Amino acid sequence: MPWPSRKRDKGAVADKKEPDAKIAKTEEETPDKEEEEKSTKPPAGSSKSGWKNWKKTKESDAGGEESKITYCHWLLKSEPESRLEKGVDVKFSIDDLKAQPNQTTFWDGVRNYQARNFLRAMKLGQQAFFYHSNCKEPGIVAIVKIVKEAYPDHTQFDQKDPHYDSTSRKENPKWSMVDVQFVRMTKRFIPLSEIKAHHLAHKADGGPLKNMMLFTRQRLSIQPLTQEEFDFVLSLEEEKPH
């Protein structure tokens, strides 16, 4: 049986640097330390040239046409380190996913309405970044794909589960989950700090990460990505870390 409460979002807390999501009712209560940095300048080595070079390549590939702004990819947060919630360890790392039968599991325990709606919008075959959250160094570690679209999350009816919801009814369930399957590890770990550096640069020059939800709604554990956001972040795996 899959781990009881790995993917979290009940209130998607920001990460330790952003407590992750399945914490249900704390989404707007825990500050994101990563977002409270005094300095708003991108770290050294995070110049805008990376975005400009990437943009030239994309324009060349697409004949100069801009990508449509639609959400077709996702970012899923999960905690790789042990943490007890109502006596249950909610740890679930990428290694835990890879250890599951067929490297597939359900993404349960989401208890935030916006995150739930994102789950319900997911389509079969869409890809998502697997993001380690609420840990020493948050960031993207792998790619997964949606292998089953939204259906009722059984943990809402389990009184022993830390995400039990006594107000939800089986005839009209409040909460949903999807099934995800491991696709591959990213070529390197892509840390939150590096993504944030590009986000800050893009806010100034109009790059693809300027409105990335990881920074505008950082406490959500389920976040949509545009094609441009997904492609740009994925391109970072080819670069040497700063």
Automatic annotation (TrEMBL):
Q: Where is the composition biased (Basic and acidic residues)?
A: 10-28
Where do the record's region annotations for Disordered lie? 1-62
**Which keywords does this Swiss-Prot/TrEMBL entry list?**
Nucleus, Phosphoprotein
Query: Which CDD domains does the entry link to?
Result: EVE
Q: Where in the cell is it found?
A: Nucleus
Q: Which residues form the EVE domain?
A: 73-235
Its primary localisation, in coarse terms, equals: nucleus
Which residue stretches does the UniProt record annotate as biased composition, category Low complexity? 41-52
SUPFAM superfamilies for the chain:
PUA domain-like
Quote a single Gene Ontology cellular component term.
nucleus
As for what it does, the entry says: Specifically binds 5-hydroxymethylcytosine (5hmC), suggesting that it acts as a specific reader of 5hmC.
Q: What is this protein called?
A: Thymocyte nuclear protein 1
